[in-house]
Amino acid sequence: MKLGYAVQLWREGGQYIAHAMPLDVASSGATPAKARAALAEAVGLFLKTAQEEGTLEQILAEAV
């Protein structure tokens, strides 16, 4: 499954924060590219866990 999402990216101190909207998942990295890569991994794990817990459909419906 492919899921598109908007990403907010900003710098806090020495780290870049990447936030996936509207899933409300965030991660960070030393560079913008590393923050986006960490976010992609976090979103994948979030969705995998939601599927295992049986809440994926509800999360996707709320994200629309």
Structure, described:
The chain is of the alpha+beta class. The protein has helices spanning 32-53, 56-63, and strands at residues 6-12, 15-21, 25-29. Strands 1-2-3 form a three-stranded antiparallel beta sheet, covered by helices on one side. A hairpin with a 3-residue loop joins β2 and β3 (25-29). The mean pLDDT is 95.
Could you give a quick summary of the protein structure above?
The protein has 64 residues and is α+β, with helices and mostly antiparallel strands. It is built from two helices and three strands. It has one domain (6-63).
Write the layout of secondary structure elements.
Elements: E1 6-12, E2 15-21, E3 25-29, H1 32-53, H2 56-63
Antiparallel strand pairs: 1-2, 2-3
Share in helix: 40-55%
Tell me the strand percentage band: 25-35%
**Strand adjacency order, main sheet:** 1-2-3
Structural class determined from secondary elements: alpha+beta
Uncertain residue ranges:
none
- Outline, from the CA principal axes? elongated
Q: Give the tally of β-strands.
A: 3
Report the sheet with the most strands, covering strand number, pairing sense and barrel closure.
Answer: 3 strands, antiparallel
Please report the distance between the alpha carbons of the first and last residues: 16 Å
Radius of gyration: 12 Å
Q: Number of helical runs?
A: 2
The mean pLDDT is 95
What's the helix-strand series? EEEHH
Number of domains: 1
